[in-house]
Design brief:
There is one protein chain. By secondary structure, the protein is of the alpha+beta class. The chain contains 13 helices and 14 strands. The strands form 4 sheets. Strands 1-3-2-4-5 form a 5-stranded antiparallel sheet, with helices on both faces. A 5-stranded mixed sheet has the order 8-11-12-13-14. Helix 5 packs antiparallel against helix 8, helix 6 packs across helix 8 and helix 7 crosses helix 8. The protein is globular, with a radius of gyration of 21 Å. The chain starts with 8 loop residues before the first helix and ends with a strand.
Amino acid sequence: MDALPPLSRRALGRATLARQLLLSPSPLGTEEAVRHLVGLQAQNTKPPYYALAARLGGFRPEDLSALMESRAVARIASLRSTVHTHTARDAVALRALVQSGAISRELAMFRKGLAGADPDRLAALARAFVEAEPRTPGEIRAHLLREWPAADPQALTLAARCLLPLVQATPRGLWGRGGQVRLTTADRWFPGHEYDAADAEELVLRYLGAFGPASVKDAQTWCGLTRLRPVFDRLRPRLLALRDEDGTELFDLPDAPRPDPDVPAPPRLLPEFDNLLLSHADRRRIVPEEYRHRTWTGNQAHRVLLLDGAVAGLWYLDEGKERVTLTLAPFAPVARADRAALTEEAERVLRLTARSPYDIVFREEG
């Protein structure tokens, strides 16, 4: 291990961009890409579409919508207890694996508000209710309050979400249609399919394939599980051990791409909460330290633009009735060639996603 030179942040960034399908448009199909990326952050409904538009050469938003309608992919709380768009198998198998992590910790935070409600009975009542037909969070809350009127309503709703693998039923999340959140169980949404829980070793290997090279702490940040060090130790004979420029031990799949640090990285427009920006404890490979606090306001992440493989600004979308305006807002002045490349990338994304005539404008973010 010590014979290998340390990886610079730039080298780490290029390797991760390659795994994330962001160095060149990928020929992968939509479902295959969702699986390779181990899901797409989906706290809002449109980010999965923009995430795939940034990564796939032949992507059309209708492709993902069709997969959602056929139940090949679905929206479910999983990694970090946040909503992701996963393949059907991952929606079940990964959710079962990460249940003991951030999802259980989130439930523990609200236990005092449950007014002594028995978790097993709460889960049984909620399951029967949502399996009869998909229900809104408000309907679930009202149903459970009849049993526990002294409980905190929010705590009851969150407990149901944490205790059960609740899928967001379509048309929620469909491109150009949408609808309010209605929930049912994964068992009901995927009838006839049985998926065993993923194991921790599979989780780590898939994480490295999509986000590596990475440290143990990086992996734990990504999935919301703790105590992954023994898993990495068991896998060590199958992994390449590296170090970053600060001396932190990193792991990687031996045959995974690690491009030259100077390989070109085209501009990309990423949606809010993109997993590229959320899946490492040390995010400096993609997010320069000086911009770390500029990609968030409170709990809200912003859409970011990448230049030369790193966050370099924000972008905004104003979807008016007559025209769509996409505003590119670099944090610092950009060269004429970069400005042209950013415009070209914005036009590519808008050709895929805009339903109206569009304009592209620049402004200094300041």
